[in-house]
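Why show two proteins at once? Because comparison is the fastest way to build intuition. When a single record is shown, students tend to memorize it. When two are placed side by side, the eye starts asking what differs. So, the first record is below.
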Amino acid sequence: MRLFVGIVPSPEAISHAAGAVDRIASTTPDMRWVPSERWHVTLAFLGEVDPDRVPELTSRLDHVAVAHEPIEGLCLDGSGSFPGVLWLGVGNAAEQSAGNPRFSAVTRLGGLADAIQREMPKAGVHLESRPWQPHLTVGRWRPSPRREGAARDAARSLADYAGPGFSVDEVRLVESMTDPEPEYRDVHVVALGHSAT
């Protein structure tokens, strides 16, 4: 099973961002746009995992979730690209921007991601060692200089995007299936700040 742990912004945040992405989609025809129903923010990418490890993974995820309260005041904010990937960033909503950075929504989300990533090896799943950057993938492309330029232009077009605020009150363990077409299936969903039922 190919698994990741992630969060999903609110329907309002997704709809608002989809409107902004749709406006530039026609200008980058070589981009493979990710349907908004598959949009998510990955907290930990687990990769291929033996199905026998899933019960321990869900137990570890429950352990982390109960220790973290829901996070209010996030928003989709700005844009950028990695090789082959166009993304929207995750920032603090306007009402959070003037607060204490130590307790900002993005800082708290980073703490949640870090806690999840620390627990996964205890379930026998070893993660890649790379810095975590909260983002939501909206498009992909096959490498070529022309497509790279188009993707940079698309990222610049979305650079000033700032969506409505949303809250995170649950995390999801998700199976990513690619055949015959990409599809996500929730394996386990747990509320933040509550014991799993």
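Second record. Ask yourself what differs from the first in the token line.
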Amino acid sequence: ELPSVLDDVPAALPALARAVKLQKRAARVGFDWPDVSGVLDKMAEEIDELRVEIAAGNTENMAEELGDVLFAWTNLARHQHIDPETALRSANAKFERRFRRIEAILAADDRRPDDADLEELETLWNQAKTEERA
């Protein structure tokens, strides 16, 4: 096997961290978009490919295309100097806060989320979002 600039990127790294490292290594030798517009175009292309596989019901190809989407999103984070792990942790925390607020609102009426339909849950989500921003 030929030597590669990717050789010493540890395979044991978490996937998100490894994606960033692989992309940085490739970028060092010029395999990168000159600006974020190329990344955004690639993201749109990957989402379109995922839509095709979802419509076809091809689970195996869906998984591959979803991986490509995640890889492209990671590339966007790298281009914008955002740590994708930190961004995702923050999104997880925000989701958890808002969902717990939905649960609390429903619990005040002796209800649970599975007692509400999606429309009500969306309304409560927007309420939690508004309260959080206030």
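One difference worth noting in the second protein: Residues 88 and 129 are 18 Å apart (CA to CA).
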